[in-house]
Specification:
The chain is α/β, with parallel strands linked by helices. It has two domains: 179 residues, Periplasmic binding protein-like II (D-Maltodextrin-Binding Protein, domain 2), CATH 3.40.190.10; 160 residues, D-Maltodextrin-Binding Protein, domain 2 (3-Layer(aba) Sandwich), CATH 3.40.190.10. 41% of the residues lie in helices and 16% in strands. It is built from 16 helices and twelve strands. The strands form two sheets. Strands 1, 2, 3, 4, 6, 7, 8, 9 and 12 form a nine-stranded mixed β-sheet that branches. It has a three-stranded mixed β-sheet with strand order 5-10-11. A hairpin with a 5-residue loop joins strand 10 and strand 11. The radius of gyration is 20 Å and the shape is globular. About 11% of the residues have low confidence.
């Protein structure tokens, strides 16, 4: 029995169930030591999916003066000894970010792993969307000069281990003009609790009714085959090191690898890559769902001829009670990100929230 997998899944279930039982979250040990963040005053942790954007936001917020000026007029974020708005973020993965938030080791968490309104209420949390992005399927095949085409059924078969060679007839049929190699497929998966894994498995579930029971739809699942990698950086390194590899990354970090990003068949049967326009198309018509009553948005396999099928919403999770200084600082930073940070998101290839949604979300803070 894979005790590590079972223990990790029990960990997530206890995060959700402990408040309902009215007990302390015993598994939420303070995983961040006191010096993890140095002397920073605002601490966040979680998603690696959005790490490049958060790094840019952190720089702008701390060093460019915008964050300091914004904080000075919005009650709450102190500055460090150099007059900078003090902020640090640990890209530990979505599940770990939620654990750190529950342990009061951080002031906010970022995640693509949504919680239901019932769970949020029980845990005394709120969640808000901050940006949209695509989960790219990345392959390491030197023969490819254009995006490899894959549909949902074929992708399921690859991650189940039922298709194990790159020149399998199912893949060849989708790519008739490509000379695919007789090479072993090497699936790579995330080992830690990952919101990117959740988004991918949500999509695969829609293609295979047996997937939830056999593999799972969660931040941690029991992959039938494959090689482990930790974090987005570990996934990128594993893909670069293995010819024949296939894995998943956020579209921004996937582009930086220089490897092939697959074109996936969407609900209309069109093959699309995770560009900004395709992610925006997936989000169209979902505006109410994104902000309405804190309900988790579901943007996988969204309708539309141009929609990208594995689209994720990055959520910020924070304490509902706005009593402590850390809670106020978190709200100040997130308000800044929703106003001053959306252009940076656009520039990097993420998809900002529509202005109408931004106003609704800011009102929740």
């Amino acid at each position: 029995m894979d005790t590590s997998f079972n223990n990790q899944n029990r960990m997530r279930r206890r995060l959700v169930q402990s408040a309902a039982a009215g007990v302390a979250v015993g598994i939420m040990t303070p995983l961040c030591r006191a010096n993890t963040f140095g002397d920073s005053l605002l601490k966040g942790a979680g998603s690696t999916f959005v790490m490049p954007l958060v790094q840019r936001w952190t720089k702008e917020y701390r060093e460019d003066g915008v964050g300091t000026e914004f904080a000075a007029h919005n009650s709450g974020l102190d500055t460090d000894l150099w007059g900078r708005a003090a902020l640090d973020y640990e890209a530990a993965g979505s599940l770990a970010g939620l654990q750190r938030l529950q342990a009061r080791a951080v002031d906010f968490a970022l995640s693509e792993l949504p919680m239901s309104q019932k769970t949020l209420t029980r845990l005394g949390l709120i969640q808000i969307p901050i940006v949209l992005g695509g989960v790219a399927i990345v392959t390491h095949l030197q023969e490819l000069t254009r995006p490899l085409r894959l549909d949902g059924a074929t992708l399921v078969s690859i991650f189940r281990g039922r298709i194990s060679r790159w020149n399998d007839p199912a893949i060849v049929a989708l790519n008739p003009d490509v000379n695919l190699p007789d090479l072993t497929i090497k699936p790579i998966y995330r080992t830690e609790g990952s919101g990117t894994t959740y988004t991918l498995t949500r999509s695969l579930e829609t293609q295979d009714s047996a997937w939830p029971g056999d593999v799972g739809v969660d931040a941690l699942v029991r992959w039938p085959v494959g090689l482990p990698a930790r974090g987005s950086s570990g996934m990128a390194q594993a893909l670069l090191a293995r010819t024949g590899g296939i894995g998943y990354l956020d579209a921004v970090q996937a582009a930086s690898t220089g490897l092939n990003i697959a074109a996936l068949a969407n609900s209309a049967g069109q093959f699309v890559t995770p560009g900004r326009a395709a992610i925006e198309a997936a989000a169209q018509g979902a505006a109410r769902q994104i902000a309405l009553k804190n309900e988790p948005p579901q943007l996988v396999n969204a309708p539309g001829e141009h929609s990208y099928p594995i689209t994720a919403t990055v959520l910020a999770i924070l304490n509902a009670a706005n009593k402590k200084r850390g809670d106020r600082r978190a709200r100040t930073f997130l308000k800044w990100a929703l106003s001053h940070g959306q252009q940076s998101a656009f520039d990097m290839g993420y998809v900002p929230l529509p202005p109408s949604i931004v106003e609704q979300v800011r009102a929740m803070l």
